[in-house]
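Onboarding guide, step 5: your first structure request.
Type a short instruction followed by the sequence, for example:

Predict the 3D structure of this protein.
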Amino acid sequence: MSDKQTIGKMGEEMAARFMEEMGFQVVARNYRHKHAEIDLIVHRDNWLIFVEVKTRSSTTYGEPETFVDFKKGRKIMEAAEEYIFTTNWRGHIRFDIVSVKLGNPPEIRHFEDAIN
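The system replies with structure tokens like these:
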């Protein structure tokens, strides 16, 4: 596993714990549909939230959340559409970003409704 993959997996694990601490239930990790992947799918009340996790060990090139572009957002939405259809979800949906900056201590930020 490359350093980039290791950092990504660490960030996803930290984001999942963070969302659970916020009262969400993680229902899926790394959900794949065609060429798209959703890092986390979480549920709370009548909300299903599709979460893109961005992790960086440094902010030299920018904040982690700034790396979710339009193309990535479209792919996430396409995969979410398939998930909603296959699970027959009838509640609310939202697309969030969780930004993880590794450090001592790590910094985790949650951006609600960040992908449209």
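Each response can be followed by summary notes, for example: Strands lie at 25-33, 36-44, 47-56, 92-101, 107-111.
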